[in-house]
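User: I'm writing a tutorial on reading structure tokens. Could you give me a worked example: one chain, its sequence, then its tokens, then a sentence or two explaining what the tokens reveal?
Assistant: Sure. Here is the example chain.
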Amino acid sequence: MSRMVAVGLPFWRIDARINAAYGPIMSNISKQALSAFQFASTITVEQLNRWSPGTMVEHLAIEFVECGHDFLRARMPVDARTVQPFGQLHGGASVTLAETLGSVASLCCLDIEKQYAVGVEINANHLRAVRTGFVYGTVMPFHVGRRTHVWDIRIADDAQNPVCISRLTTMILDK
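And here are its predicted structure tokens:
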């Protein structure tokens, strides 16, 4: 998977490092999920960013930067809004970026006039400290079912070093 993206980062460069650390099973699950999954081709970055005003997403300056047929990507600055007292990226900010990506990915799979998604479980492993620049999160599906979705979110820094890996489960509810 070596697609180039709008922000100039190789698509999933950290995948090999994570597979080395956690084994090939994560990669195999993602590949199986991807073979049958695709976002609607009409989804745009502009549409996703229009959902942000008045929310935590706006407060943390999270910005969607790319929509692919099987992934969404957003970036978040590492600045006074997102660092902890020691000047490095707050783990909670990484989790907020991860939950934002996974929740929005779920919404992109639904008829939002009839259904909505709520997060029911999130897991995050923080791998590296970041003090400046941006972090980029990419979300891809593990499972997209009728009542639950499970998302894989990987966050990297400007130099493409892995910062955080996360998994979000959302429950799909009728309005």
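What the tokens reveal: Strands lie at 63-67, 72-77, 115-126, 134-144, 148-157, 162-174. The first strand starts at residue 63 and ends at 67.
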